[in-house]
Every structure is written in structure tokens, then in C-alpha cells.
Amino acid sequence: MSGMAPPGLTRADLPSAVVTAPPIGALREKFFVQRAKDDPGPDGGLTRSYQTLALIWASVEPLDGHLILAGRDVAAATGAEAPQLRLLTRYSLFLAEADRIDTILYWRRRRERWRIHRVADLAHRGRFLALDCTLLERVAPSVP
């Protein structure tokens, strides 16, 4: 089974490449998968609203400093933003395509919206996904 240590070893003894699944109970942060929708406003401009598509549970890992710096180098060359956060969640076909369809995650506990930049299937087994995200916006407390 993926992510399980052989007898006599703990997860900490294994190289990170061998441990492909988060530990049991690690998926404890609730995120709402959303899609932005721009509607014409009363003043002639556009009003942005968000449609919630799904609820997921994930573990949250800040990216290491060297990964952020490397991401900034790539971002500077390509004009994209550098990911700041990695989420590990259960595999879903819907999320496997999230980096191509401009999907947003709303972290209600922190009142933040995150844009998904990269999606990776851990160990290519269709069990868990790693989502690299950047902060899109902080939501005012009056907005649910």
C-alpha cells in the first residue's frame, strides 16, 4: 500500500519520494472549489461572483524557501506567479484538470482565495493530488 512503511520503519525513516500519501488524519483543512463568474454590473462594469462547485479536504504545506525562490525565477522568466502553498488531497478527475480551467480554492477558516497553478498526481496512481497554489485575495469578514 502506498505511503506505508515496511515493518520496523516509520514514515520519518523513509525518503520523501517513497512516502506518496499523507498520513491518516492529515486531510483536515476544508476548501471550497470555486469558479469565478463576471456578470454585468448596474453601473456598466463587471461584477465578479464565485460559484462553489465542490468541497474538498486537504493538508496544507507551505513550500520550502528554495522552491519558492526557484518558482520566482521561473515566474520572472514566464510572467507567471510563483506558488506559495501546496495542498495534498484525494484524487478527483475534476481537480486533475483544475490548472487548465482557472479553478479557485476558498479557504474559509482563513478567508482567502487561492489560484491553482499546478496539479500533480502523486506516484501516478490516481489516489492523491498535489496542488500548488498562489494567494489570489483575502476576503473581507462581512463576505461569507
Automatic annotation (TrEMBL):
Superkingdom classification of source: Bacteria
InterPro entries per the UniProt record, alphabetical: Phage_SPP1_head-tail_adaptor, SSP1_head-tail_sf
Pfam families attached to this UniProt entry: Phage_HCP
Gene3D superfamilies: Bacteriophage SPP1 head-tail adaptor protein
UniProt-recorded name of the protein: Head-tail adaptor protein
Organism from which the protein derives: Elstera cyanobacteriorum
